[in-house]
Amino acid sequence: MAAPNKHENVECSLNTDNGAAPHSPIVNKPTCIIVLGMAGSGKTSFVQRLTHHLHAKKIPPYVINLDPAVLDVPFPANIDIRDTVNYKEVMKHYSLGPNGGIVTSLNLFATRFDQVMNFIESKSKECTYVVLDTPGQIEVFTWSASGTIITEALASSFPTVIVYVLDTPRSVNPVTFMSNMLYACSILYKTKLPFLIVMNKIDIISHSFAQEWMTDFEAFQNALEHETSYVSNLTRSMSLVLDEFYMTIKSVGVSATTGEGFDEFLSKIDDATVEYDKEYRPMYEKLRSEKTHKEEAEKQKQRESFYKDHFGGDIPVKSDLLESVSTRVVLEQPTEEGSDEEELTQNTDDANTLEEESFRRYLDARRQQQSKKVIKKDSQS
Ligand SMILES: Nc1nc2c(ncn2[C@@H]2O[C@H](COP(=O)(O)OP(=O)(O)O)[C@@H](O)[C@H]2O)c(=O)[nH]1
Ligand SMILES: [Mg+2]
């Protein structure tokens, strides 16, 4: 059942006189923070804590919940997907299982994302951060058309940062850690956006081991010593590949439960915003223009093949058309020198004659029809 519309229109104002974190350097553009991570890594708890933290700093964020299946949203969401799509109804209507229901709900929501963009745009001057919580299962967002549509829509208009939440206590095993990192790496290369790894739940275990593994190749290899499975061999080879990824990636340890690490998180988000403006925006704009060109070329190709199939020739280009028009004009010009007036009178006369002829033909046809009707009536009576 869709939740009541209780979260909408949460006041969103920016007060700069409170020693708050520095505003993102792109004037009048909020930074969009897309929160991704494995199910149970603590995305929703993280968004809840971040919202709380930002409210305390008097920089309330604009918060969007994109998880249609969540029972309770524990933060004040300005936009809640559950107000737009009823996940249970979608499951029933399309005879889907829970995962299909979530994917379809997100797809339906993505078709209205232009409205969400308008809402964000309208809050641009007041809000510094837009935070988006995503569905529990990461693949619903990262490997679906709707996830791509939403990410690209945001990234094409606002500085956008991907925040990957890592369940630190569950990553103490080097093989699990590696799988998580491979997933993070695939998202980074897919989205091509500034990326921040948030090592969550540091109230349970410190994230120092993970940061050491990311910076010290030997330390990670040593941790793998105890693993003898085939997967550990694969992990050993993969860690060489991930070395480059680790060099560029930023990470921060936080606890959504205690609030530890959130100031550092915000300062890294501001760095990522600058990074977006310097590196990613030009790249995104280039990619977008390339995409438009490609689509245009594809359309032209389709037009040409349609023309060939139906008319057996190439589409006349503008210059051809001009040529044919000018040829006609030349042919219609009087061979002998004559005034424009004469030409006009001649043309008008021709038109009148044609009109008379056509009217006469019409009258004949009508007469014939009438006489046929009369004959028919006579024969019936
Ligand atoms: N100890 C601890 N538990 C956390 C933390 N963050 C989340 N959790 C717990 O992890 C579980 C999953 O969290 P949730 O936010 O629902 O994860 P999501 O599926 O990624 O949205 C919940 O039981 C949370 O209470 C944290 O920082 N510390
Ligand atoms: Mg969640």
Automatic annotation (TrEMBL):
Belongs to the GPN-loop GTPase family. Binds to RNA polymerase II. It is found in: Cytoplasm; Nucleus. GO terms for molecular function: GTP binding; GTPase activity. Keywords: Coiled coil, Cytoplasm, GTP-binding, Hydrolase, Nucleotide-binding, Nucleus. InterPro entries: Gpn, Gpn1/Npa3/XAB1, P-loop_NTPase. Small GTPase required for proper nuclear import of RNA polymerase II (RNAPII). May act at an RNAP assembly step prior to nuclear import. Residues 328-357 are annotated as: Disordered. One of its GO terms (cellular component) is nucleus. Residues 334-344 have a biased composition (Acidic residues). Its EC number is 3.6.5.-. This is GPN-loop GTPase. Its main location: cytoplasm.
